[in-house]
């Protein structure tokens, strides 16, 4: 089949957790199909990305993005009916190009990654389409609204409602809507009437994890995640202020390493405390995971599969997660990772792991085994192929039934 893959950002390099899912989706699809890629790019990384992605895609088209940055408080957003991400990646030029492509070329399937690109599905009214939402983002914004004061609460709730409208409409407009876990898929099924079109597809485990770790000489905790993302920023701040001081009281030499791009001033200020080190330009997380005694994912917003957990487990790092963060993860608490219900329990679990090297080794081994068993690339590739074939087959049957109805 010929497949057109549309993504908001260049899905490269694959080591970046934001690129892991679309990169491997393209790689899996290219095993049996001819895949063309259309995406936005900028910042001078296009040449290396294009050269690498052409291993999977004969045609790679990277369009410039005009650099517009839409914030919730801007007039442009307040008077718009579209979500922030849709405004950010909205391009009349791309829509016209895709409409022209639909008239001149024949694709058997259009695969669109992320809600931000969902409107571009309108350029292909007849072609079967798949939308990979990854998670039900609307409910996360509504959760943000509940945690904020006016006027931020009003803006966040408005954004959540706009996204919810988009997600519901997508189930009608696309033959398949994919989520990163069965838990997230069930959430969306509960919000729409045509639940049969909603399916789950796991995110593959990062394939680059080293088999041998070299832990630091001092007790080291790692928090990894882009710090311009609200759940990551909130989690890092909360851990620094409410959990790490408890641990330092018993382990004065304990170190907290926070690795994430674009930290705001509040994170930089909190990271000035003793024992805290902030890496705002992490080049390769493998060294940081390899040195960590414990990785922690202390998120307080309970939405979506946390890629930080998948990454940490794949690296074989003993991992402690909050109850809110443990959503849609195919792992066993107490065996593959540790699950904490509150700050005190999280601190106690980390201290217990500090005190028992053998427990850390067992937990790390089981974590990696769980990822290899439950998130293997071949199993996810086969699942994706099943979804693609089912989508195209159902579209053909639907069109055949429509032709028969019109003839009769």
Describe this structure in words.
The protein has 408 residues and is of the alpha/beta class. It has two domains: 2-204 and 376-407, Rossmann fold, CATH 3.40.50.2000; 220-374, Rossmann fold, CATH 3.40.50.2000. 46% of the residues lie in helices and 15% in strands. The chain has helices at 17-29, 46-53, 75-78, 84-88, 92-104, 137-147, 152-173, 182-189, 230-242, 244-250, 265-270, 285-291, 307-314, 343-355, 357-374, 377-407; strands at 2-7, 34-41, 59-64, 109-113, 129-134, 176-179, 198-200, 220-224, 255-259, 276-279, 294-297, 319-322, 338-340. A seven-stranded parallel sheet has the order 3-2-1-4-5-6-7, with helices on both faces. Helix 2 links the parallel strand 2 (34-41) and strand 3 (59-64). Helix 6 (137-147) packs antiparallel against helix 7 and helix 13 crosses helix 15 (357-374). It is globular and about 75 Å long. The protein starts with a strand and ends with a helix. 44% of the residues are buried.
What descriptive keywords fit this protein?
6-stranded parallel β-sheet, Rossmann fold, 46% helix, alpha/beta, 13 strands, 7-stranded parallel β-sheet, 2 domains, 408 residues
